[in-house]
């Protein structure tokens, strides 16, 4: 029984899963989506839910710095509703302010090329979202 962390954007969804004990988060993949075409990657998430025996979701919730909710936050709220309707699992929204910037900083410090960073940044942000949630529980 694992928890899946998701960093939802308009073009990609970064995916991470917890270990079986709920202590650590590992990056899984980045799913390409198309928000404009209403393609949200739910079928691929369903495959990963089955593969990793997921029983809960944590979705990044991008609040503005003044704690208000903008368009991306509303998109995360809608994604949460889709997951709840499809899977019936608990779905938590987790404040993700600055996680993408922190993930990029970490990759830069690790001397990862710009091209490679672009390929893994969303997955890394999903790891940071999920790890923050797991740390708050333990």
What does this 3D model show about the protein?
The chain has 138 residues and is α/β, with parallel strands linked by helices. 46% of the residues lie in helices and 25% in strands. It has a five-stranded mixed sheet with strand order 3-2-1-4-5, with helices on both faces. Strand 2 and strand 3 form a beta hairpin. The longest helix is centred in the last third of the chain and has 24 residues. The model has no long low-confidence stretch (mean pLDDT 88).
Quick recap of the structure?
The protein has 138 residues and is an alpha/beta fold. It is built from four helices and five strands; from the N terminus they run βββαβαβαα.
- Give the class-level CATH name: Alpha Beta
SSE topology string: EEEHEHEHH
**What is the CATH architecture assignment?**
2-Layer Sandwich
What's the N-to-C terminus distance? 16 Å
Give me the count of strands.
Answer: 5
Strand order of the largest sheet: 3-2-1-4-5
Give the integer mean of the pLDDT values: 88
Multimeric organization: single chain
Largest sheet: 5 strands, mixed
Beta-strand level of the residues, as a percent range?
Answer: 25-35%
CATH topology description:
Nucleotidyltransferase, domain 5
CATH H-level superfamily: YqgF/RNase H-like domain
Number of domains: 1
Please state the structural category.
alpha/beta
Low-confidence segments, ≥5 residues, pLDDT <50? none
Q: Enumerate how many helices there are, as a single number.
A: 4
Which percent range fits the helix content?
40-55%
Radius of gyration: 14 Å
In one word, what is the shape? globular
């Amino acid at each position: 029984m694992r928890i899946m962390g998701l960093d939802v954007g308009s073009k990609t969804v970064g995916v991470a899963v917890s270990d079986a004990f709920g202590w650590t988060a590992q990056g899984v993949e980045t799913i390409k989506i198309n928000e404009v075409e209403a393609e949200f990657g739910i079928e691929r998430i369903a495959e990963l839910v089955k593969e990793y025996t997921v029983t809960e979701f944590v979705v990044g919730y991008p609040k503005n710095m003044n704690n208000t909710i903008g368009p991306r936050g509303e998109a995360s709220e809608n994604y949460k509703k889709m997951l709840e309707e499809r899977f019936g699992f608990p779905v938590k929204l987790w404040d993700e302010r600055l996680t993408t910037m922190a993930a990029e900083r970490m990759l830069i410090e690790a001397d990862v090329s710009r091209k490679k960073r672009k390929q893994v940044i969303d997955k890394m942000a999903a790891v940071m979202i999920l790890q923050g949630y797991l740390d708050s529980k333990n």
